[in-house]
Specification:
- The chain has 472 residues and is an alpha/beta fold.
- It is built from 13 helices and 20 strands.
- The strands form six sheets. The protein has a seven-stranded parallel sheet with strand order 3-2-1-4-5-6-11, with helices on both faces.
- It is globular, with a radius of gyration of 23 Å.
- The structure holds uridine-diphosphate-N-acetylglucosamine (UD1).
- Uridine-diphosphate-N-acetylglucosamine (UD1) binds next to helix 7 and strand 8.
């Protein structure tokens, strides 16, 4: 049994890795400032594994907290996920990216040195191969040109780790170069949950499928690829998480810096991914073809030979598995945001939308009384009931609508027609408390998660359910 410090352990890949580590019997300490993740992820990790990881809510650059962690725990290895990761944003605030991503790595390495911890696994990216290498990418290729500041931080950190390994016999750095991780945990509890409007393809597809965004724009269909759209090496995040276990095993037995590609070795186009998603889930994803996105490369995929032969790791899940897992996660988020009844016996239905919910006040007959109110991610049922009261108050006193949230929250009003017949939108089961439960539409079972509205915000045991079982 090893004790592993996971920075960014509440994030998308980090949380899945924590689950795999705990299930393999290791102890896990999570350090995450929750700047791009929710604290509820820690509960979800516990729900899945039955073990609660130690959790420190702090910045990975915070030397005091790092010192506290290394003093309180005998850490055998560090897996470093924490970092800013939005390509577009990195072009606008490069200093924040360099400061955050480089400083956290340096701080960790220095604290590790003091504590005598010598095993480091780094979350790198296929982006380090830059625009000039031939495909598929092989670990021996040069990696000194990135296309954006985010990518440069990965190139630079890899170099820092190589230099540090050269200077420090006995130190190990495993550089894991991820291709395009998608999907989520089979429980539906963990997945890719970006704030605001997603930049990446799969979270965008999933939100379109859920009716939270109108349509997908495919960025260009005139690339030199078989169908003209860009091709990527998508891999299931659970496979990727398992790769970290292999990387830790490797780190315990080797020294020096070593890079590994983690991908499937297969390229899938944007169109193929959208079509596979629709086939695998039975849900429609409207799309249009738009112009190319600046900085996109036509295609990339991994040469996976090194990971297979040296780590003994190979991605196993299919693209359809990945699509179902991504969709399952989005549906399960909806389930958590079930209808709540407010004090006036009306029901507030919340639809997840980025980091905000849209609350919709619906009367028992299903008519929308008031169609939107931005609130912070409505984790608390009581908050949402209060918010529903608040909408009514405003309605009654003719007050203007609350301002649309800061930070680019994106509002989508729920229309009456959505409730009645748009089967992309989950339909609330509305009935008087204690009365017969209304049947949900079941065309797209995963989308339609129903719950009996409750009085006083109390959760009814087993209240949330799927209208029909998931496909396959
Ligand atoms: C990008 C980054 C990568 C980073 C990864 C995860 C680059 C070149 N790529 O990968 O370093 O690790 O994000 O954050 O720096 N697409 C659409 N419509 C959309 C969104 C995407 O057509 O609404 C297309 C893109 O043009 C691309 C493909 O889908 O061809 C995948 O895009 P995305 O999910 O953003 O990942 P990458 O750009 O491959």
């Amino acid at each position: 049994v090893m004790k592993i410090l996971v920075t960014g352990g509440a994030g998308f890949i980090g949380s899945h890795t924590c689950v795999e580590l705990l299930e393999a019997g290791h102890d896990v300490v999570i350090l995450d400032d929750l700047s791009n993740a929710s604290g509820t992820v820690i509960d979800k990790i516990e729900t899945i594994t039955g073990k609660r990881p130690a959790f420190y809510q702090a910045d990975a650059k915070d030397r005091t907290v790092l010192h506290e962690i290394f003093t309180a725990h005998r850490i055998d290895a560090v897996v470093h996920f924490a970092g800013f990761k939005a390509v577009g944003e990195s072009c606008h605030i490069p200093l924040a990216y360099y400061r955050n991503n480089l400083d956290s790595t340096l701080a960790l390495l220095e604290e590790m040195a003091q504590a005598g911890c010598t095993r480091f696994v780094f979350s790198s990216s296929a982006t380090v191969y830059g625009p000039d290498n031939a495909i598929p990418y092989v670990e021996t290729m040069p990696t000194y040109v990135a296309t954006n500041p985010y990518g440069w931080t990965k190139v630079m950190i890899e170099q820092i780790l190589r230099d540090y390994c050269t200077a420090t016999p006995g130190f190990t750095a495993v550089l894991l170069r991820y291709f395009n991780p998608i999907g989520g945990h089979p429980s539906g509890l963990l997945g890719d949950d970006p704030n605001g409007i997603p930049n990446n393809l799969m979270p965008y597809i999933a939100r379109v499928a859920a009716g939270q965004l109108d349509k997908l724009t495919i960025f260009g269909d005139d690339y030199p690829t078989p169908d003209g759209t860009c091709r990527r090496d998508y891999l299931h995040v659970v496979d990727l998480a398992k790769g970290h276990l292999k990387a830790i095993d490797y780190a315990m037995e080797h020294t020096g810096a070593e890079a590994f590609n983690l991908g499937t070795g297969h390229a899938v186009s944007v169109l193929e991914l959208v079509n596979t998603f629709m086939e695998a889930t039975g849900v429609n994803v409207p799309y249009v073809i738009g112009p190319r996105r600046e900085g996109d490369l036509p295609q990339m995929w991994a040469d996976t030979h090194k990971a297979e032969t040296i780590l003994g790791w190979k991605a196993e899940k299919t693209v359809a598995d990945m699509c179902r897992a991504s969709w399952n996660f989005v549906c399960s988020v909806k389930k958590q945001l079930c209808p709540v009844r407010n004090r006036n016996n009306k029901t507030a239905v919340s639809l997840r939308d980025g980091c905000f919910c849209c609350l919709h006040l619906v009367d028992p007959g299903g008519a929308v009384v008031r169609d939107r109110l931005p609130v912070h991610m409505g984790e608390q049922r009581d908050d949402r009931a209060d918010a529903a009261d608040d909408i009514e108050q405003r309605e009654r006193h003719g007050k203007p609508e609350l301002p649309v949230p800061r930070q680019g929250g994106h509002m989508l009003p729920l229309r009456q027609k959505d409730i009645e017949r748009d089967d992309r939108v989950p339909q609330p089961a509305l009935s008087e408390a204690g009365g017969p439960r209304q049947q949900c539409r079941a065309d797209h079972a995963e989308a339609l998660l129903c719950e009996q509205p409750q009085r006083n915000g109390a959760q009814q045991p087993g209240g949330a359910r799927l209208a029909t079982p998931l496909h396959n």
